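Section 5.1 Outputs to date
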Amino acid sequence: MKLSHELRRLGRHSAIYGLGGLVSRILATLLLPLYTHYLPPGSYGRVEVITAATAVLAIVLQMGISSAFFRFYFDAKNHADKLVVIRTSFWFTMGMATLGLLAGLIFADQISHLLGLGSDATLVRAGAVGLWAQANYNQLTALFRVEERSTQYAIASIANVLITVVAMVVFIAVFHWGAVGLIVGNFTGTLCIYAVLLAYRSEQLGLQFDTTLFRAMQTFGMPLVPSALALWTINFVDREFVIWYKGAAEAGIYSVAVKVAGVITFVMVAFRTAWPAFAYSIDDDRDAKRTYSYVLTYLLTITSWVALALGALAPWLVALLTNPRYQRAEEAVALLAFAGAIYAGYTMLAIGSGRARRTQFNWVVTGVGATANVALNFWLIPAYGMVGAAISTAVAYVVLFVGMTIYAQSVYRVDYQWRRVVTCVGAAVALTVAARVPGLPLAASVVLVLAYPLALAVLGFYLPAERKRLRRLVPLAR
């Protein structure tokens, strides 16, 4: 199959999947003034702690089945076998999510103290319900992904977001529920859409659980659990360090930096949603390897440009979206944005071990990255606060990227375009530094962001076919 066809297919599904993410990110960004008006930094930081804790529990409870689902669905050769994979995954997820819900409801007081939230058991119970809703919702929407029904997935996502936004506005601004309102609002839309999807998929969700299949899925997925926990450590443990060393207010400001830099997550989530099904659906290894090499280059080019925009324009973005209490968040945005870009590259590289069914040592790579992150947090956060946390995150993702490159290439070698990869990332970093170190005004910073494609041209990034295509798109370039 032609490379151009494969790339268009990936691009089309990523774009459609991204609609839900785009709406979610835009609304989340627009709601920042609401959050920062009604929630003091301390409360906002407490919500981040609950978010982090539920993310860890979700990883443990799913036991890698969510990742194994994609691999085994495409390995199944007929409709009946695919149904067995769907049902086994569904009932396992339902059972484990319910176990997590009960634990959160029963031991809410103890968990609250363990997380450093004092006697705020209501926040923990709200988080437990959110965990149950999200785990089950993700499993059902994964069916749209393996079926490559991106439009239906986007409709469900957008409906979820719209219901969630209305709920959060009501709970925070009208009922004044504070941090609890933010968490309850977050899962209200998820629960509503999950109920609809449950009815829609009822014929596929029969009472069937294949223990032999489940053991095989566990063999594939379980090695990914410590890997996912290590990734969580890099993504979230810095908030705990910031709280311990600098207090909840600093964590709240850091959370705003994470939200602003998280705009890059729109690109990454759209890609990650489409990527597993797309990557495993290419049967021929030669076609797969050639496609993977181009995907890494284009993915890092796009995410690096987004990171450049976020980093160069950080002072104005933070001022626009928050109040002066949160303005210091601008100091961490660029680091976190480029960390997100590198992480996107890591997720793409990791497909090599999954395709080769050699996931047993993914945890070594992520473990090294997490260890580097924790060590740097101990060293940098006491001295530099949230900026130290951002540096730790960026370095950890670079370690992950390099480590996964080495491991994935050892089990599934792909001839990636390394010169172009270094060029696209390096140019974006250099332009960001040029904008922020001298403190350029807004107009000059915007010019540097827009100059990124031209900088790539000067550096010889584009291939002849790409230059020809660009000339057709931009007649003035002739």
